[in-house]
């Protein structure tokens, strides 16, 4: 069996389930008309509902329901036509209501399944348990004053989708691949911007270990991890901690732990221990959420082509490898850029150029594909100049660099700089003859068996033609003349 | 269902309400009276009856996704016992 971890006393299997909190891309909050935009001044985006003033009543935001249903459909989940909001009670300084409005027994979205793509090119199904809508809490800031915490309620009441997986993951890689895929789906359908640095997506990771084939071990929950890299680190650390603990005769305690990204370790959050008695009950301020099947059908119609379907299409229509197709479909913007290039040029060549040349330049310049100085049409034109032998691949890289810097057309650069490939055999032959005549030493060595010298001869021809000679023709001519 | 002193102390702690030790016993008695009153409902056969969400026959109203509220930090903070620089301030709570 794959993915087993060797301990001192035998093999261990890791079991991971994730709860991902994804902020719904809505203008207003889940139950109030206050704004959700990132970066406002303290308490500027707070309504009296969010501050839990007495007598305020929540009214649900239609867009949040829409996005929850669309996300459910994109993950192949069952949609519950009737769902109920419940109060999750706990006491904390940044939770003015004293409870979070969430969904408990009847969430808006039920079971489904997504495919995750692993690094070895394999894929795996991961079950989705549910998706429910809930309010975010406010934010506490602890470093402004030695004895006080500062509370900002701008996030209080912002709509979150909590997406709960089944405990189907068996390694840090699988957990990372799951979050990557989820983020890709959410961004494709526009339900969440997936910006983990700004807190739009965070994960709680449930981890336990067991001997293969045995029942589930006791789990620890790692709270609020906000990057895919940290998820990997946290899982690796926590797995080692649990295995060492058990092998030393100890027991894993069911608890909430915090991942410290600076120290790279997890530690117990004792303060949350008695907070686990949430005393859920249906929120009397809110009627059940009832949606029509016609609405669900309508939402199905609003979904774009999803990453998996697009990947399959890129493989079958364009002949790409699973790996390349996976890279190209991970972001919707990248996929449409690629498709626009492939419409004008050889699709495989287009994939290579987008993945290595374009990504490389964009990375160096710190730019997104959406503000690439080279338009997809223009890149397509450049690639067709390679395919029709107007320029060589090597020259094309030079032209591409200039396109990236100036935004000029490929054709114009080739014309201006006179970079057109010399395919006229007669012209190349004259140059080849000249070089052979002037290099008797090298010719003799070649003829006595040092055939590796062919590279040197090609280099000489290229030097004389400033790289513009068609490499195929040069090779062919050199071989026949040197050997003949 | 009957509450003992310990459970009452726990509920009070969860709600962050300070209840003096000598009040726990009498409070348990009062709460048990209320529970006893409600328990009479158990005599009614409710098999196959959906829980009543509201006495009004209507579905939940939904609002449009538009920013129509907020932008008044002064009003939000007006009732705060202590504020600073646009924040509420509270005794330090750190993990």
From TrEMBL, chain A:
SUPFAM superfamilies: GatB/YqeY motif (SSF89095), Glutamine synthetase/guanido kinase (SSF55931). It holds the Pfam family GatB_Yqey. The keyword ATP-binding applies. InterPro entries: Asn/Gln-tRNA_amidoTrfase_suB/E (IPR017959), Asn/Gln-tRNA_Trfase_suB/E_cat (IPR006075), Asn/Gln_amidotransferase (IPR018027), Asn/Gln_tRNA_amidoTrase-B-like (IPR003789), GatB (IPR004413), GatB_C_1 (IPR042114), GatB_Yqey_C_2 (IPR023168), Gln-tRNA_amidoTrfase_suB_CS (IPR017958). Its EC number is 6.3.5.-. Residues 336-482 form the Asn/Gln amidotransferase domain. It comes from the Bacteria. Keywords: ATP-binding, Ligase, Nucleotide-binding, Protein biosynthesis, Transferase. Belongs to the GatB/GatE family. GatB subfamily. Heterotrimer of A, B and C subunits. This is Aspartyl/glutamyl-tRNA(Asn/Gln) amidotransferase subunit B.
From TrEMBL, chain B:
Keywords: ATP-binding, Ligase, Nucleotide-binding, Protein biosynthesis, Transferase. Its EC number is 6.3.5.-. It catalyses: L-aspartyl-tRNA(Asn) + L-glutamine + ATP + H2O = L-asparaginyl-tRNA(Asn) + L-glutamate + ADP + phosphate + 2 H(+); L-glutamyl-tRNA(Gln) + L-glutamine + ATP + H2O = L-glutaminyl-tRNA(Gln) + L-glutamate + ADP + phosphate + H(+). Gene3D superfamilies: Glu-tRNAGln amidotransferase C subunit, N-terminal domain. One of its GO terms (molecular function) is ATP binding. It is an enzyme of class 6 (ligase). It comes from the Bacteria. SUPFAM superfamilies: Glu-tRNAGln amidotransferase C subunit. GO terms for biological process: glutaminyl-tRNAGln biosynthesis via transamidation; regulation of translational fidelity; translation. Pfam families: GatC. The keyword ATP-binding applies. Belongs to the GatC family. Allows the formation of correctly charged Asn-tRNA(Asn) or Gln-tRNA(Gln) through the transamidation of misacylated Asp-tRNA(Asn) or Glu-tRNA(Gln) in organisms which lack either or both of asparaginyl-tRNA or glutaminyl-tRNA synthetases. The reaction takes place in the presence of glutamine and ATP through an activated phospho-Asp-tRNA(Asn) or phospho-Glu-tRNA(Gln). Heterotrimer of A, B and C subunits. This is Aspartyl/glutamyl-tRNA(Asn/Gln) amidotransferase subunit C. It comes from Aestuariispira insulae.
